[in-house]
Amino acid sequence: MKKLNDCIDSYLDYTNNRDLKASTPVGYQHMKEKYTTLQLPFADQKRVDIDIRYNGSVTEFIECYKTYAAAINFMKDNPGTSYFMDFQKSIMTILGGGDPDVTMVTSWMPIFIRFARKPGTNL
After folding, report:
1. Segment 94-108, tens digit of pLDDT
2. What is the 3-state secondary structure (H, E, C) of 106-120?
3. What's the mean pLDDT when you consider all of the chain?
4. How many angstroms separate the CA atoms of 117 and 123, rounded?
């Protein structure tokens, strides 16, 4: 089974080679080092928390969201994991614009993803 951080590294390497990188002021690798904290390894825990601490522009939030997407892909590739997400604000609220709270939202955006082993599995 792939480790979660390997999955994220692969995803970020892939996105680094796309045109999106040219339009982003903060590189994905820098974003991961600055904003993402992973508690691993998965095999030794019943739960893994990913805490993406976002502290910048909407563009930087989108980059953080890429890491979140990589985690979702990890779960799809490893059946037996379950998760729930807790967003302080909806991504649509942030991207929609015109929200009086958008400044507050973009200054602090935690995303928590928790993995839990299902009973009766070896995951």
Report:
1. 333 333 333 333 333
2. HHCEEEEEEEEECCC
3. 43
4. 6
Per the CB < 8 A criterion, the answer to whether 64 and 111 are in contact is yes
Transcribe 23-48 into DSSP letters: G-SS-HHHHHHHHEEE---GGG-SEE
- Residue for token digits 């805490």? 51
Q: Report how far residue 45's alpha carbon sits from residue 51's, in angstroms, rounded to the nearest whole number.
A: 16
What would the DSSP string read from start to end of 61-108? HHHHHHHHHHHHHHHHHSTTEEEEEEESS-HHHHHH---TTHHHHHH-
Pairing relationship of beta strands 36-38 and 47-54 according to DSSP bridges: antiparallel
pTM for the full predicted model: 0.27
Which pLDDT tens digit goes with each residue over 68-87?
566 556 555 655 444 333 33
Strands of the sheet containing 109-117, edge to edge, are 36-38, 47-54, 109-117, 81-87
Q: Measured between alpha carbons, how far is residue 27 from residues 24, 47, 52, 59, 108 in Å?
A: 7, 29, 15, 11, 19
Rg (CA), the chain: 15
